[in-house]
Amino acid sequence: MSTSTLLLLLALTGVCHCFVCPNSWTRYGNSCYAYIGQPLPWVEATSFCRASGGRLVEITSASENTFVQNLINSKGAGKVWFGINDMVENGRWVLTSNRRDIPYSNWAPGEPNNLYNNQACGAIYSNGQWDDEYCSVSRTFTFVCEK
């Protein structure tokens, strides 16, 4: 191996922030994503993702929204939980992990509507549009984790 090739390889390894996602997780950008096909209430889905070393997916851009939409469509899912809520302040939707205002949204027409003043958890349809949903233990959907 020539000296210039060796120097190039050393330079590339110094700037490469490569990582591999665990089995059954899919890489997109700087995160790994897993569709979880077990329907759970929103709070339990959140706990499941944390126990897996991640969080409910927090969609922060149109491109990430499209990625998640494609992921759930590839699994034949209809509506899935994701990591936003307005539990602390009605109408102020935040990322679940850090309570920061959502930087991007893709609400379905007429949403969020806080039906019966009781919808505070985020869900995404297979068409990529968002809905506010009941957080009750009787309401279950599949979900996507991110880490």
Automatic annotation (TrEMBL):
Gene3D superfamilies named in the record: Mannose-Binding Protein A, subunit A (3.10.100.10)
Signal found in the keyword field: yes
Family matches, as Pfam families: Lectin_C (PF00059)
Domain of life: Eukaryota
Keywords per UniProt: Signal
Domain C-type lectin: 28-141
Signal peptide as annotated in the record: 1-18
Protein name: C-type lectin domain-containing protein
Organism: Pomacea canaliculata
Organism placement in taxonomy: Eukaryota, Metazoa, Spiralia, Lophotrochozoa, Mollusca
